[in-house]
Amino acid sequence: MKVLNFGSLNVDYVYNVDHMVRGGETLASGGMNIFLGGKGFNQSAALAKAGLEVYHAGQIGEDGLAFLSACREYGIHDDFIRKTEGKGGHTIIQIDKTGQNCILLYGGSNRTITKEFVDEVLPHFGKGDFLVLQNEINLLDYIIDAAYERGMIIALNPSPMDENLDSCDMSKIRYFLLNEIEGAQLTGEQDLSKVPAKLLEKYPDAGIVLTLGQEGSVYMDKEQTVRQGIYPVKAVDTTAAGDTFTGYFIAGIAAGDPIEKILDTAAKASAIAVSREGAAPSIPCKKEVDAFR
Ligand code: RIB
Question: By the 8 A CB rule, do 207 and 175 touch?
Answer without folding.
Answer: yes
